[in-house]
Amino acid sequence: MREDNLITYALEGNVAFIGLNRPDKRNAINDPLVDALRAAVLRAHDEADVAVLHGHGTNFCSGLDLAEALARATGQIKPPRKRRRHNWHEVFDLIARGPIPFVAALHGAVVGGGLELATAAHVRVCDETALFGLPEGQRGIFVGGGGTVRIQRVVGTTVMMDMMLTGRLLTPAEGLQEHVVRYVVPAGQALAKATELAQRIAKNSVETNWMIINVLPRIQDMSHDDGLFVEQLNSNRARPPEAEARLREFVDGKAKRLQENQG
Question: Is the dihedral of CA 98, 100, 101, 102 positive or negative?
């Protein structure tokens, strides 16, 4: 494992493991961490077929580093000379709409920017210690890491408004109910479950995984007719030799049976 101050990175086979590594700050996100995360994500794009995102210590991520936010609000951090894209938006989009799927292993605090980061992943697992929240309303700020787009589409406007207005924290069971996560496991087992899922996803073809994570969310943004048109374009693309081999394996009765219960 290679480790720097803020992010750990490990490659096991074709699965990359990217860990937030500010445990003393509950893995709060500051600009240096975002920069380190960008480098790790781009490395995973090149080296891996699937990536697992996790947090070191007792929390996944407590969100925005409020000390940095205060320094910026009081002018202690000089703003850039020109307006540019928010660095969180850029990096989280590299996760959400990049070339490989991401599985998030969640535990402890998954709040604010931590929840925004988690919802950039394509499959999310939590253990029984996880709590999901959006405390920006109580901090006098607003979501800024893509939450208005990603979290709102996952849980719906009503649930997101409630979380922001009241500061309510969702339990793992409520997170499962509101589609924040797809799997809930006993305490301490989120990373193991995420690893299992990542290894299963890595058995898919790279091309199919790319279409699943890039075509589906774009079709969601389209009209009915445009969505069907884009679906047809992608389903009728020239198939690589690997696809032909997989289809022949099924026709010849040699394909593995699908698992009925993967929870």
Answer: negative
Percent pLDDT > 70 in the chain is 83
Q: Is 136 a catalytic residue?
A: yes
Q: Which of 68, 90, 128, 136 is catalytic?
A: 136
Q: Convert the pLDDT of each residue in 8-46 to its tens digit.
A: 999 999 999 999 999 999 999 999 999 999 999 999 999
| 116 part of the active site | yes
Q: Please pick, among 116, 196, 231, 260, the residue that the annotation labels catalytic.
A: 116
